[in-house]
UniProtKB/TrEMBL annotation:
Residues annotated as domain HTH araC/xylS-type: 456-553
Single GO MF annotation: DNA-binding transcription factor activity
Source domain of life: Bacteria
Keywords, in A-Z order: DNA-binding, Phosphoprotein, Transcription, Transcription regulation
Residues modified to 4-aspartylphosphate: D65
UniProt record, GO biological process: phosphorelay signal transduction system
Stretches assigned to the Response regulatory domain: 12-132
InterPro entries the record matches: CheY-like_superfamily, Homeodomain-like_sf, HTH_AraC, HTH_AraC-typ_CS, Sig_transdc_resp-reg_receiver, Tscrpt_reg_AraC-type_HTH
Name of this chain's protein: Helix-turn-helix domain-containing protein
Chain coiled-coil ranges: none
Amino acid sequence: MMREAIGMAKFQALIVDDEPLARLALREYILLTSADIEIAGEAGDGFEALAFLKERQDIDLILADIQMPRMNGVELLKAVREAAFPQQPLVIMLSAYSDYSFVRDSFVLGAFDYMLKAKLDENYIIPVLEKTVDELNRRQSLLADSLPSDEEETVCSILHRLSVLQETGQPMLEQKEDWNRSLAIVRKHMGEKNQEVALIRLSEAVPFEDTHRMILQTIRSVTNKERNEGICRVCRHDDRHYTIFFTFPEQCSTVVIRRLTHTVLTDVQIRLRQFLNLRISIGISHVANGVMQWSRLFQQAERLSVLSYFHGYDHLYYPEAARQTSMPSDKHNQWKDKWNLFKTELLKSLKEADQSVYKRQLQDGFGLLIERYPSFPERIKSELSEMIWEAGTVISRNGIAWNDIQAVFPHPAEQVRQLETWEETVKWIEQFLELLHEKLHPVSKGASAWLSPVVAKAKAIIEKHYDEEILLSTISEMVGVSESYLSKQFAKETGVNFIPYLTNLRIEKAKQALENGLKIYDVAEKVGYVNPEHFSRIFKKVTGVSPIAYRKKYERQA
């Protein structure tokens, strides 16, 4: 129903474009297609628009061209978001250019929608304006119940405490009054009917606050825009996780609730991938009632989010995706006996010169782990970490220094816990055991000390150009052999594949740079990593600690 027909004021819009004819055309289209929007004014660039907005803080909608002199549309959007308006206007970006970078920047900064000026006609503009009016109506209806930013933070803080609450974490008697007040705040602003938790897990931790602000803005721009017919709070959990708390007080159907949340979360996933190049997995809990259920729902969503270890990122994981692993204690004991027998046989088979013996045993062990823990990567990693320590005793008994192993696989028992996927874990364990087998069955001294001219030249190239984007295919061309031959020969003669060799060399150089006090992004560039975040992830995977933690540890020791 039109707002004017029921006695409500029209929404106020500002058109910002440096072309007078474009402003006139857009004004006419809006007059023809929407009875709920009134043009309050026009501006020729971003500076004029800001001056207008200072005088008229009742503007509900801004339609801004991206390409303008003095201050373009993206700069205007940023300035609007930083301004302290009582109610932030919705912003629709307009452009004659389908420029991806402008679109991405606009949505990251919180643009509501985007339109190409070349496509403007009634059929194109009507759906956009209808969606815009729907959102403005929704925001207006929620305005009376909206929270100031400090209250929003308070609700998120309480929800976070409820999420991580364990049975042993119940408040002491003297804290009961504060606790009850906190529960009352959550009940007031969230309700406690049809609660649901979605945990967003990034493919890697993000150490930069600017990136986190953009992530939070992107998620909130989706959850605020979608008509999910429920209440939603988005909270940052840590450097890798974001929690979305839903309640649906008016819904009676879990099927409808799933459809609503699926729409929102799919949009979140797409936006984070398109605009921030982030891969995520999302675990979604069951629906439950009662404020004390948040902890259980959060833990369920957390368990589901790590299924990316088995199935990869870019997926939404619902409760039915988790395979049941509970079994009676006698069955578990039987499995444990099988697993212990496997480890004994595997370590024994490493002493056999024939590699195929231990490799067959290893495949049996992988099967046992997946059979027992098909949905619990941390338990798999724990079992493998323990197996690595036991393998270390075999190495020591045979007179091989553990430092020789750590030179290639630093802190292996911890390193295996940092691996992100089952596929990556299998490959890593295979390479680790291959190295152990080679150490237990070395070639003659003369052969082990000698490198063929091809491999020696390849090593020299790597050590000279490790700080550049260097590929095995490039090196193979430089030494005059095929890529597949160099790959096999390099691994055979050095005992390690090309990528791990290059990575370990870079990390050793990075350690030296960190010890000399260089900043992390300078260190990353110095050793050949363009992206500091990627460098930090690789550094932690290899060393077991972040670059910051490594530098602090070195400074304490110094």
